[in-house]
Design brief:
globular; alpha/beta; 9-stranded mixed sheet; binds N-(aminocarbonyl)-beta-alanine; metal ion binding; TIM Barrel; single chain; about 30% helix; about 500 residues; binds zinc ion
C-alpha cells in the first residue's frame, strides 16, 4: 500500500456521468472531497489534477450493504481487518460498506465500541448495522441508544444459528416493534434455525473420506433447506406486516424466498430483498467438488443453490439492490470443518468482485441498463443509499455529494485470477479509477490508501421506507389497550 492520493482538487473530464435515472456526457469538478459541479465543460487552473474519462462511465462508487470484516464467528475470525477488506473493496470500485456489529457479552454498547476500535484504521467510509441476538429491557433501551446516539438505523435478527445468534419469534416480534417505534429498519437472516439444526445434527457429520457417499443425502438436505429459507422469509414477512414495519431480508439465496418477497411487495408491503454476489454468480455444483478446499470455500448460510436460482435472483434484481455478505475465511480456517462439515466457518468472498460481477452478469447481458447498474450497486433511486437514508450524500454524482466516484471502462476486460478464487473469470468492464472522499485511491492497477482516511457515516432513522406507513394501519395498532381492573369479557365487548 502506498500513501493515499492527496489532490484536493480534481476534474474528471469528458466521461458519461451516470446517476440512477439519467446519464449525460459532462465534466465533474471535485474540491475537498465534495462534488462541486457537473457541467458540459468546466475550465480549471494548473493546480487541479485532471483525469480524462472520455469513452468511459463516471459513476458513484459502490455501497456494499452487507459485510463482515474482522468478524469473530464459528471459533475463528474473518481473514480481513477493516483496512485490508476496504482496500480490496476500493480496488473493485466500492467506496462505502455497512458492517454488522455483534453484541459483546450481550451488550450493544460494548459491541459497537469494539467495532469502533476495529474500524479506526479505515481507508474507506463505513456504517454499522447492529445484530440483536437476545431480548430484554436492556436490549430495548440499548437499541434506542444505537439509533439516537450512535447513528445506526438498522438491526439484524438471526432466525438461524441455533445456540449462537438465533432469536425466537417472540423476541423477533419485540424487536420488530422496537424498530418500528425508532424508525429503524428490521433486517432478517431468514432460515428456520430449529429445522436446520435438526437436519445437521441427525446427519452428515463427516465430509472428508465419506464425502462422496454422503453427497446424495446431503443434496436432499440442501433442497430441504430451500424450503426452510422460504418458510422463514414468509414468517418474517408476516410478523413485520403484523406490526406494520418495513423489512429487509439479507442474503436472499433461493427462488422460494424471492417469491415470498415478491408476493409481499405486490400486496403493498414494504419488503426489500438483498441478493448477494455469490448467489447471482455461482451455483451449488462447487459444493460437491471432490476437493474439500474447493467445496468448503462455497459454504455459506443460506447455501448457494443449484443453477436456476442464480438466474431467478438476477431477474429479481431489476427491483432491488445487491450486497456481498463478505465473510471470508482462508483454507486453514475452512479446514476446521474437515471432519464435521457443520464446523466449516460459514461465509464467502466478494467485496472486491461485486461491482465487476454485477456489470458482467447484468449489464453485459443486457438484463439491466447502465443507470439501473448505478441504482443496484451504488444506490440512488430507491436502493441502498435511500434505504439507509444516506442519499444524496452517497450514491449520486450531484453537487454536494461526497466525491466517491468510479471510472469504469466498458471496453476493457480482465480476468479475476486471485489464488483464492476457485476459477478464472473473465469479466468485461473494468473499474480503472476509484476516487474515495475526493482522493484517487485506485489507478493504473495500484492502490493508494492510507490508515484513518475512512469516516464513520451516521445513518439517520425514518428513511422513505417509514414514510407514511402508519396510514396503512395494522392489526396490532387497532387492538385496544389491555384492560386495567376491567374484566376480559367487558374488554372484548368494547373491542
Ligand atoms: N452468511 C454466512 O454464511 N456468513 C456470514 C454471517 C451471516 O450473514 O449470516
Ligand atoms: Zn446472515
Ligand atoms: Zn452476513
Amino acid at each position: 500500500f502506498c500513501d493515499a492520493g492527496t489532490s484536493s482538487k480534481l476534474l474528471i473530464k469528458g466521461g458519461t456521468v451516470v446517476n440512477a435515472h439519467h446519464q449525460q456526457v459532462a465534466d465533474v469538478y471535485v474540491e475537498d472531497g465534495i462534488i462541486v459541479s457537473i457541467k458540459s465543460t468546466i475550465m480549471v487552473g494548473d493546480e487541479v489534477t485532471v483525469i480524462d474519462a472520455t469513452g468511459k462511465f463516471v459513476m458513484p462508487g459502490g455501497t456494499d450493504p452487507h459485510t463482515h470484516l474482522e468478524f469473530e464467528f464459528m471459533g475463528t475470525e474473518t481473514v480481513d481487518g477493516f483496512f485490508g477488506g476496504q482496500a480490496a473493496a476500493l480496488a473493485g470500485g466500492t467506496t462505502m460498506h455497512i458492517d454488522f456489529v455483534i453484541p459483546r457479552k450481550g451488550s450493544l454498547t460494548a459491541g459497537i465500541e469494539a467495532y469502533e476500535k476495529k474500524a479506526r484504521k479505515s481507508c474507506m467510509d463505513y456504517g454499522f448495522h447492529i445484530a440483536i441476538t437476545k431480548w430484554d429491557e436492556t436490549m430495548s433501551r440499548e437499541m434506542e441508544l444505537m439509533v439516537k446516539e450512535k447513528g445506526t438505523n438498522s438491526f439484524k435478527f438471526f432466525m438461524a444459528y441455533k445456540g449462537a445468534l438465533m432469536i425466537n419469534d417472540e423476541f423477533l416480534l419485540e424487536g420488530f416493534k422496537k424498530c418500528k417505534s425508532l424508525g429503524a429498519l428490521a433486517m432478517v437472516h431468514a432460515e428456520n434455525g430449529d429445522a436446520v439444526d435438526e437436519g445437521q445434527k441427525k446427519n452428515y457429520r463427516t465430509w472428508n473420506n465419506w464425502y462422496v457417499i454422503i453427497l446424495n443425502t446431503c443434496y436432499d438436505f440442501l433442497c430441504c433447506v430451500i424450503l426452510l429459507e422460504g418458510e422463514a422469509t414468509a414468517r418474517a414477512i408476516h410478523l413485520a406486516d403484523f406490526v406494520n414495519t418495513p423489512l429487509y431480508v439479507v442474503h436472499v439465496m433461493s427462488i422460494d424466498a424471492m417469491e415470498e418477497i415478491a408476493k409481499a411487495r405486490k400486496s403493498g408491503q414494504r419488503v426489500i430483498g438483498e441478493p448477494v454476489a455469490s448467489g447471482l454468480a455461482l451455483d451449488e455444483s462447487w459444493l460437491w467438488h471432490p476437493d474439500f478446499e474447493t467445496a468448503a470455500k462455497q459454504v455459506m448460510s443460506p447455501p448457494i443453490r443449484k443453477r436456476g436460482h442464480d438466474k431467478a435472483l438476477q431477474a429479481s434484481l431489476s427491483t432491488g439492490l445487491v450486497g456481498t455478505d463478505r465473510c471470508a475465511f482462508n483454507s486453514t480456517q475452512k479446514a476446521l470443518g474437515i471432519d464435521d462439515f457443520q464446523k466449516i466457518p460459514n461465509g464467502v468472498n466478494g467485496i472486491e468482485e461485486r461491482m465487476h460481477l454485477v456489470w458482467d452478469i447484468m449489464v453485459e447481458s443486457v438484463q439491466i441498463s447502465v443507470t439501473d447498474y448505478v441504482r443496484l450497486t451504488s444506490t440512488n433511486g430507491c436502493q441502498n443509499a435511500r434505504i439507509f437514508n444516506i442519499c444524496p450524500r452517497k450514491g449520486a454524482i450531484l453537487p454536494g455529494s461526497d466525491a466517491d466516484i468510479i471510472i469504469l471502462n466498458p471496453n476493457s476486460s480482465f480476468e479475476i485470477t486471485a489464488k483464492s478464487h476457485h476459477s478464472k473469470l473473465d469479466t468485461n468492464g473494468k473499474v480503472e479509477v476509484t476516487i474515495a472522499g475526493g482522493r484517487v485511491v485506485w489507478e493504473n492497477n495500484e492502490l493508494k490508501v492510507a490508515h484513518g482516511t475512512g469516516r464513520y457515516i451516521k445513518m439517520p432513522p425514518f428513511s422513505y421506507l417509514s414514510d407514511g406507513i402508519d396510514k396503512k394501519g395494522c392489526l396490532l395498532s387497532k387492538l385496544p389497550p389491555s384492560p386495567s381492573g376491567e374484566s376480559q369479557i367487558q374488554h372484548l365487548k368494547s373491542f
